[in-house]
Amino acid sequence: MRKSIESLGGRKYTGARLNPYRSRRKHEIDRYPNEPVLGSENIITRRVRGRNYKMAVKSSEFVNVSDNENKKTIKTKILKTLKNPANKDYERRGVLSKGAIVETELGHVKIVSRPGQVGTINGVIIKEAT
Questions:
Q1: pTM of the model
Q2: At a CB cut-off of 8 Å and minimum separation 6, what does 89 contact?
Q3: Contact between residue 99 and residue 85 where contact means Cβ atoms under 8 Å apart
Q4: What's residue 1's pLDDT?
């Protein structure tokens, strides 16, 4: 999990204790990261600041693939996760995050959306260098 933005308590770089001068505010509370994986379609809705809502993909088996040569977008099935430069552990577990490269029925696709925050998985076809 990432460190909260508020710098309450903890320790200095020298090792000295820092005493918090106030308690944590509601908007500073962190949540567990949402790590979408390959599986049956599961999308959740969560409430965020300002009475807004965020859709989040928990698991999905489809990706919207944009083919720039043919100017078409096709919904296709994900076969497996090939590479995830965001995290070596994500690559092993098959997490579908932004920048991940997946194998589909159309070929290799790079994910360009943020499935854990947007609620959809969008990608573009990668041309193999010959």
A1: 0.77
A2: none
A3: yes
A4: 44
| Residue listed under structure tokens 């099935």 | 77
Q: State mean pLDDT over 41-57.
A: 91
Q: Give the chain's mean pLDDT.
A: 89
Name the strands in the sheet holding 37-38, side by side, starting at the edge strand that comes first in the sequence. 37-38, 52-60, 42-48
pLDDT (0 to 100) of residue 5: 60
Residue labelled with tokens 């995290």: 87
Buried/exposed 75-106: b ≥16 CB within 10 Å, e otherwise: ebebeebeebeeeeebbeebbbbbebbbebee
Q: How far apart are CA 89 and CA 57, in angstroms?
A: 19
Q: Encoding tokens for residue 1?
A: 């999990």
Contact 28, 9 (CB under 8 A): no
What sign does the CA torsion over 56, 113, 3, 93 have? positive
